Every structure is written in C-alpha cells, then in structure tokens.
Amino acid sequence: MDLIQNITELATKVSESNGLDLVDVEIFRAGKRRVLRIYVGKRDGVNVDDCARISRDLGTLLDADNVMQDENYILEVSSPGLDRPFKTIKDYRRNLGRFVRVSTREPIEGFGNKKLMVGKLEDVGETSITLDTDGKSRSIPLDLILQAKVDVRLT
C-alpha cells in the first residue's frame, strides 16, 4: 500500500469514529519536512475541538505504525471551507438543504438552457442531484456537472 492510501485509510477510520467525514488528504514537502493536510467535514460544520481530536488521534496512529518511516512531518487538520468544490457524493449529501451553485458541461433542460444554476439542494441520488430553483424541482445528472459548491449567502 502506498503512503497516500495508508494515510487515507487511517484518516477515514479516525474521522468516522469521531462522527466526521474525511474530505481530502494532501501530502507535500515544505523544506525538509512533509506536510500532511487532512480535511474533515460534517453537516453542522467542523470546529476547533473536532480538528484537535482528529489531529491527536491520527497523529498517535501515524506514529505508532511509523507510517512516515521516521521522516519529520507536520500534521494539519482543518475544515475544507465553504467555497471548496464538491468532490464526492458525500460532499453533496453533507450539503443537502443548502443553496448550491452548479455549473454544467452543457445546458440542462428545464433551466432555461443555462449552464449555471443556483438552487436549494433537495436530493442526491447515485446518478443525479435535484435542485429547487424558484419553487420547481429539477434534476441534474452528476456526469454533466463541472463544478458544484455551496452558494454562500450572508444574511
């Protein structure tokens, strides 16, 4: 198993045992050290205590299993942020009920031939999502979506 797979597997276990979803794992060099950046999420948002708990638990496992093979590393755990594009079905499901901005490869029937839609995410299926735009529910196939993310609204 390669390094990223090993870290992803451990981070998934730790995240799930703490009631969070693993969103992404990044590994890169910063000088003589490697930086492991772990992004976690949950429906009602991630707080500092969540990040600290994941960092502590994951750090313990990484060190106990010598995953980094005695190489110096920095472990960073954070929320992916509101404006991060969705990458997985879990990202869509975590944002059910929120307003999202979706851009597509081609115009979607029922959206006035637009390629950019904003609406409330009502449903997430295996092959499509459903948006409520102006009180009408419309389906968008996942394979036509170029990018989707939360539409940040300040009220």
Q: Indicate the mean pLDDT.
A: 91
- Helix-strand topology string: HEEHEHEEEEE
Secondary structure tally: strands: 8
Q: Span from first to last CA?
A: 47 Å
CATH fold-level assignment of the largest domain: GMP Synthetase, Chain A, domain 3
Q: Unreliable stretches, pLDDT < 50, 5 or more residues?
A: none
CA gyration radius, whole angstroms: 18 Å
Sequence of strands across the biggest β-sheet? 7-6-5-4-8
Q: For this structure, what is the CATH class of the largest domain?
A: Alpha Beta
User: Helix/strand/pairing class, anyone?
Assistant: alpha+beta
Count of separate structural domains: 2
Structure description:
The protein is of the alpha+beta class. It has two domains: 3-78, RimP-like superfamily, N-terminal (GMP Synthetase, Chain A, domain 3); 89-150, SH3 type barrels (Roll), CATH 2.30.30. It is 25% helix and 37% strand. The chain has three helices and eight strands, in the order H-E-E-H-E-H-E-E-E-E-E. It has a five-stranded antiparallel sheet with strand order 7-6-5-4-8. A three-stranded mixed sheet has the order 1-2-3. Strand 1 (21-30) and strand 2 (33-41) form a beta hairpin. The longest helix has 17 residues, at 48-64. It is elongated, with a radius of gyration of 18 Å. The protein starts with a helix and ends in a 5-residue tail after the last strand. The model has no long low-confidence stretch (mean pLDDT 91).
